[in-house]
Amino acid sequence: MTSTAKPDAATGTLRGGPRRRRVRAGGGRGAPLPLLVPALIGLAFLVVPLVALLVRAPWRSMPEQLTSAEVWQALRLSLICATAATAVSLVIGVPLAWLLARVEFRGRGLVRALVTLPLVLPPVVGGVALLTSLGRNGIVGKWLDSWFGVTLPFTTAGVVVAEAFVAMPFLVISVEGTLRAADPRYEEAATTLGASRFTAFRRVTLPLIAPGIAAGAVLAWARALGEFGATITFAGNFPGRTQTMPLAVYLALQSDPEAAIALSLVLLAVSIAVLAGLRDRWMTAG
Amino acid sequence: MTETHGLGAGTGPDGLDARLVVDRGTFHLDVALTVAPGEVVALLGPNGAGKTTALRALAGLTPLTGGHLRLDGATLERTPPESRPVGVVFQDYLLFPHLTALDNVAFGPRCQGASKTEARAQAAQWLDRLGLADHTGAKPRRLSGGQAQRVALARALATRPRLLLLDEPLAALDARTRLEVRTQLRRHLAEFEAVAVLVTHDPLDAMVLADRLVVVEHGEVVQEGSPSDIARHPRTDYIAQLVGLNLHRGHADGHTVRLETGPAITTAEVLSGPVFVAFPPSAITLHRGRPTGSSARNVWRCEVAGLETHGDQIRAALTGDLPLAADLTTVAAAELDLHPGAEVWATVKATQTHAYPV
């Protein structure tokens, strides 16, 4: 990802001046303690656990930890499921975001609230909700089973469903925001050129909001990769089938803490990679 | 819905015959528009008059709440915008930023079912016709204002519309480019064989580009006619200001026109009944004391309400017997010691006024 020189230069000059002043203020008059102390505690609170992971990492046994078949199996499954969940979110989430951003209908506020609910819902509750809807005896799952012979709980597909349920709201919110910021008159211009509303969306709107979709997809993917509660509730914990990295970490912690730390480091590395990927978009904003 | 028969039956089936009624809360638009093929009509009016709403209604982007819309004999009011034979040049062009100039222009033909190669070939021809052969591969952000305007025109024309709509086509350009683009646009519009309707708040754009002006204020047509007719015979304060005339309405009896507000104007024409009287700000002479030796028949006592530079002249806004705009040189303004609140006497010769029936 290339970042243009301009925003970097801008933030550079913006930061340069005030920073020097702030340092002088801190050294000369001192930052007020009631602010400084909690601020440093807050910083330590966020950083120390991550440092602890690195300190306690079994660096010597690391190579064999990470090359074990179980780890690879879990990592592979995690990557596949998170990617599939992101794909599902894109296919149904982008049109949903478009609907929320572009079509005025009664109860739109309510629909938006329902879409964002999984963001704040405890994931375990999400898993239970999925069981009661898509489970073998769920209100929808019943028919899926008897008509199509499809069962989702405790399958790899179930993992994808659980992850998509939790991750899709991130994508929808991100894409809807981008759509609202995009000028709807481009779509109008397209229709005056003979494009149907769908063609206008596909050939004009979609390319224009691609960066927003990409950012939303990365967020959703990261959320899906770390998903634990809904997955273990709806899909269970079967190695090779539904045991993703977070489940493997949790399981390992009870028998082999060193392995848990090693696995955690892998997930930490992935998180840092995601953050680096989003850096241009977020760190330079504002 | 019942078919209404427009009053413009004499224009025949070809061209545009519309009555655009749009009701939106407090805003009410009701504009009748009849335009022959090959004719260029400008909707001229102040901001908020409803010009753009009328244009959007013609394009199908804003639904009509009443009236009718016929183009070359076909009824269009229920046709969605993508199926109307209408091309639009938007105010800020709205060129698709992710497509090259060529693909912007090819977009319309593609939507009409042409293959990619065919559409691109057509687009290349249009760009060539508009003098943009060297810029086919450029993205919109690399184009100058004038070039972007021509790409937008090419994009609208490439769908071979029977009705071409231009929303403030020159508003986004700087003064120098504007002059050049206005001349080019005039040539392209003259070549266009179907109906062209443009919307503008700039009287010069309207007069240069259009064969006929339709002046819209508060959602309705207040005057229409040829540019020269409207410039000489304004019927509202807005138009009089646009063309730079003092305009008063009154009742004529011989050489005297008595205004509704009291004062009278002596005119050269002999008329009777309700009339307009118009005269340019340059026809007014200002005096600091009551003029004695003046041969001018019209003498009014006024007060200076405001002063502003107007080209190399000073324009004085006057209140008093009647509201006036008067032009004078900077030297004259200094000699008269004009300042807001100063009392002045304004004189106008009868031969410099122009009276015409309402």
Automatic annotation (TrEMBL), chain A:
Span of the signal peptide: none
Classification of source organism: Bacteria, Bacillati, Actinomycetota, Actinomycetes, Kitasatosporales
Listed Gene3D superfamilies: MetI-like (1.10.3720.10)
Residues covered by region (Disordered): 1-26
Species whose genome carries this gene: Streptomyces atratus
The family this protein is said to belong to: Belongs to the binding-protein-dependent transport system permease family. CysTW subfamily.
Function field: Part of the binding-protein-dependent transport system for molybdenum; probably responsible for the translocation of the substrate across the membrane.
Keyword Membrane among record annotations: yes
Annotated membrane topology: Multi-pass membrane protein
Coiled coil: none
Record field: transmembrane: 30-55, 75-101, 113-134, 154-175, 204-222, 259-278
InterPro entries: MetI-like, MetI-like_sf, ModB_ABC, NifC_ABC_porter
Annotated Pfam families: BPD_transp_1 (PF00528)
Domain named ABC transmembrane type-1: residues: 75-276
Primary subcellular site in the record, as a coarse category: membrane
Subcellular location: Cell membrane
GO molecular function: molybdate ion transmembrane transporter activity
Protein's UniProt name: Molybdenum transport system permease
A single GO cellular-component term on record: plasma membrane
Keywords: Cell membrane, Membrane, Molybdenum, Transmembrane, Transmembrane helix, Transport
UniProtKB/TrEMBL annotation, chain B:
InterPro entries assigned to the protein according to its UniProt record, in alphabetical order: AAA+_ATPase, ABC_SmlMolc_Importer, ABC_transporter-like_ATP-bd, ABC_transporter-like_CS, ABC_transpr_FbpC, Mo/tungstate-bd_C_term_dom, Mop_domain, P-loop_NTPase
Keyword vocabulary terms for this entry: ATP-binding, Cell membrane, Ion transport, Iron, Iron transport, Membrane, Molybdenum, Nucleotide-binding, Transport
Matches recorded under Pfam families: ABC_tran, TOBE
GO cellular component, as recorded: membrane
CDD domains on file: ABC_Carb_Solutes_like (cd03259)
Gene Ontology biological process terms from the UniProt entry: molybdate ion transport
Molecular function, one GO term: ABC-type ferric iron transporter activity
Gene3D superfamilies hit by this protein: 2.40.50.100, P-loop containing nucleotide triphosphate hydrolases (3.40.50.300)
Source organism superkingdom: Bacteria
Residues of the ABC transporter domain: 13-243
Database matches in PROSITE patterns: ABC_TRANSPORTER_1, ABC_TRANSPORTER_2, MOP
Enzyme Commission numbers on file: 7.6.2.9
Protein name, entry field: ABC-type quaternary amine transporter
Naturally occurring in which organism (per UniProt): Streptomyces atratus
